[in-house]
């Protein structure tokens, strides 16, 4: 069965990467979540997509130049009718994740800013909450996921990429990844089939259109990452996968 990952939580309906979006994705029945992490000035791992707070909050500036206390005052739900939604810390998120069964893909956002010590901090927290078997660490920074695997081989890693790779299943195996996270427009039926047959899970992002959801669900792609978990779940219930 194709697993449904709610991208930044249930981000089509709720402020992305907030506890509200995560809780609503779980309520909707998603199998898993995808979250993005950055580091504050004082080294807290926080869940936010951009390097700057400008787009998703009522504040301004780089996450790396704000302390956690300063960042917590901002509202990530300011552009919606939702009540104030703070930027969550990874720890706060894990407190909640420990109480459910969801799988979680943590995307390390260290491809633009090479946050020193980010891998160690994330891994320490995963171990503290005993979540190793429910976490997949991904990044566009493949050096970082390989480093993560070196220090925590018990946690799954998956490379993210946005351009077509030649035989990505071979590349994945070479770095000990068990899955790949390709941009939707780089995947084909053949590439998905061969990857899965080679033992590599394929989890394309970001799949929101009905036709794309139907396609990936019908060919039993391993998983898909979507802003629209409810829509994806509905289609999954309706369609009969192709043999
Ligand atoms: O992890 C899949 C996807 O989230 C990668 O791109 O920019 O949405 O973080 P982006
Ligand atoms: Ca992401």
From TrEMBL:
InterPro entries: GP_PDE_dom (IPR030395), PLC-like_Pdiesterase_TIM-brl (IPR017946). It holds the Pfam family GDPD. CDD domains: GDPD_TtGDE_like (cd08563). GO terms for biological process: lipid metabolic process. Residues 2-236 form the GP-PDE domain. SUPFAM superfamilies: PLC-like phosphodiesterases (SSF51695). GO terms for molecular function: phosphoric diester hydrolase activity. PANTHER family: GLYCEROPHOSPHODIESTER PHOSPHODIESTERASE, CYTOPLASMIC, GLYCEROPHOSPHORYL DIESTER PHOSPHODIESTERASE. This is GP-PDE domain-containing protein. It comes from Bacillus methanolicus (strain MGA3 / ATCC 53907).
């Amino acid at each position: 069965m194709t697993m449904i990952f709610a991208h930044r939580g249930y981000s089509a309906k709720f402020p992305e990467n907030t506890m509200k979006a995560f809780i609503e994705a779980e309520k909707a029945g998603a199998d898993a979540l995808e979250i993005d992490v950055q580091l504050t000035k004082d080294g807290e791992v926080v869940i936010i997509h951009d390097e700057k707070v400008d787009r998703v909050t009522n504040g301004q500036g780089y996450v790396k130049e704000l302390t956690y206390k300063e960042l917590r005052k901002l509202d990530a739900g300011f552009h919606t009718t939702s009540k104030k939604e703070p930027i969550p810390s990874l720890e706060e998120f894990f407190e909640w994740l420990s109480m459910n069964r969801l799988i979680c893909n943590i995307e390390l956002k260290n491809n633009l800013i090479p946050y020193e010590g980010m891998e160690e901090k994330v891994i320490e927290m995963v171990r503290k909450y005993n979540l190793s078997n429910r976490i997949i660490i991904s990044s566009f920074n493949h050096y970082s996921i390989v480093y993560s695997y070196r220090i925590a081989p018990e946690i799954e890693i998956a490379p993210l990429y946005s351009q077509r790779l030649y035989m990505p299943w071979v590349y994945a195996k070479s770095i000990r990844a068990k899955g790949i996270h390709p941009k939707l427009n780089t995947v084909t039926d053949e590439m998905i089939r061969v990857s899965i047959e080679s033992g590599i899970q394929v989890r394309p992002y970001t799949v929101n259109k009905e036709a794309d959801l139907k396609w990936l669900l019908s060919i039993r792609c391993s998983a898909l990452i979507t802003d629209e978990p409810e829509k994806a779940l509905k289609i999954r219930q309706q369609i009969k996968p192709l043999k």
